[in-house]
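Fold these two proteins, one after the other.
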Amino acid sequence: MKISGIICEYNPLHNGHLYHLSQVREGGADGIVAVMSGNFVQRGDAAILDKFTRARLAIQAGVDLVLELPVPYALAPAENFAMGGVALLTALGNVDEISFGSESGDIQLLAQAAEACNICKTEYADVMDDFLRSGYSYPEVLSQMVSQLYDEETAAVLRQPNNTLAIAYLNAMEELGSPLHPVTIRRRGAGHNSQQPTENTASATYIRQFFAEGGDCRRMMPSYSWHALREADAEGHIGSMEYLERLILYKLRTTDPDEMHNIAEIGQGLEYRLYKAKRAASLSELLRTIQTKRYPMARLRRILLHLLLDIRTEDMQKLPPYGRVLAFNDMGRQILRESKSMRTIPFSHSLAELAETSADAGRCAALESQSTDIYQLSRKKIGQGESDFRRHITPVRRRATGRPSRRRRDNTS
């Protein structure tokens, strides 16, 4: 049985994701395992739909098993995001390949760019540090150095976001010595973060913004995803940083620079810049105050969430201590059963059970539970606290209506 792995956010699930999954199936995959971000996503934001809803929609779309990318890796730069996802797919033991989208669609060119990046970061680390201290952003520095040391074609690969993430996956595989076989699928239709739809496809960024403005997104996503989005909106369950504004400002105003020093992604004295900005009276004012050329907006938004969620540098430097199951179907259950003799870390649907497996697992689970509690405050209708440890899952099955249904509880994971 050939099993393919993907790393995703599905924020929300749309037609571009369906295309990717169809290409994975056409490539011969019998089963698909997705490592998916939880309630917070890499751009530094609350997910539009909660993780369990998005996981069920992923199963409906064709995924067989959804694993949660723990919050320290989901809210992380590309290198850490990729490392967490690749580590989980590798640790399951029976995943054969990793499939990812890219603007390039050329695995050899991506591998060449990945090698160039590694050389720049190791052999020319002092040069990179000099550029960074001069105020240039990390992607700019890397692209310039690769252009000078190699060629413009390789450097051009680094200027497109999906290519950059693909390179991060390849580097993570190299660093971990992962046996996963890399496969890339050329991204089609609207580009990452594109503000314009193309035929029946649009970026998740466009869909989120268009939906927030009252737009009809049904042609851009499968019917079950559109239904879930509308239902969540009607029930006040759409996640938004807007509702976390007061919490973030409170946290900033009650934290001194010494306490901020160990928060993830804070460096080069940024804690003092943040401390001086605590007079801000809104989240937008705060971000405008601290933004510089060196610190992209996504990183600053992540840092504010790191501060709120107490995600520290060391949390991001360790590999995931467990694999938590968010959703599965019958094939996913078979994948889990067949992996039991090959796993290198514990896998289960029970966060409480996983928390007991090691000290690192306990810390990771505590962060996950806390992030879910705070996510419940990011919605118009506040959800209950302490819900993550009590959550149980059941197999998801496809119905003729195109919406997922659930059966009896199953504890075989």
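Now the second one:
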Amino acid sequence: MKKLLLAPLFVSLVCCAQPQLTQQDFANTIDAAELRVLLYTYASDEFEGRETGTAGEEKAVQFLRDQYKAMGIASGTKDGTYFQPMTLDVRGKNVASKNVLAFIEGSEKPEEILVISAHLDHEGVKNGKIYNGADDDGSGTVAILEIAEAFQLAVASGQGPKRSILFLHVSGEEKGLLGSKYYTDNPVYSLENTVANLNIDMVGRTDPKRKGDRDYIYLIGSDKLSQDLHDLSEEANQKFTNLTLDYTFNADDDPNRFYYRSDHWNFAKNNVPIIFYFDGIHADYHKVSDEVSKIDFDLLALRTKCVFNVAWEVANREERLKVDKKK
């Protein structure tokens, strides 16, 4: 498999090592063209729909590991493999799978961990057709790679995050949030010291119900456990990206129950503050037609910058986020 080497801008800025680089400089390395290159590989037929426990998923986890190695970001596992192997119960059948973990250690509060997550799996092959899952969740997966690269640039420039950051790619989401449950049941880093989880699941498309209003992102859960996290998210967006933060699906009586339907839930039920970033349901959801050609890459880049800026603020604030509600 061809290894992708990311970010010419990343390389040039690191070589120059300018101490005056700002948070916005790092955010601006998140690039629509790079996201496009990554996703056209990750959501290609080569990965065979990335179904949990298949050869296609194995190609996906190796691809992710190779990207982190190329960026010089350390493994998040103690054995240095980047992999958290697990056996999952998928409809009564034991399936071997892996989560992928990469890690940047904090400079001042390394024991406090921010987790940025997305699920790496999709629906696989059905009736001879490959379900490539470009939006679900190829978009979140490549967004994390770009966020990780931006933080690694900060590290190389002597401005690494104060808190540690775990870049967590989980499998088994489509089978029932199994990979994230395995991680929270068997955490590599203490959940008590996990300050927040930012979960990215489908951020590359627009909801047809919004009728052309495209510069938005649905946020779910930001105020469920921590008002600090909600306020920080609002302030970071207003300062840097100015997206419309839409809380339509955040209502406690939301019939879609999205708060319980992606990997952040396994952190939230353990009292870790979360934000779930989501673009909504479109006609290609869980269909073979969820292809890269339908991704809005400029919007994906803007949303990725939004998550990066929230992550930056969480990782670098003086005080740990307060948890003021309990599940």
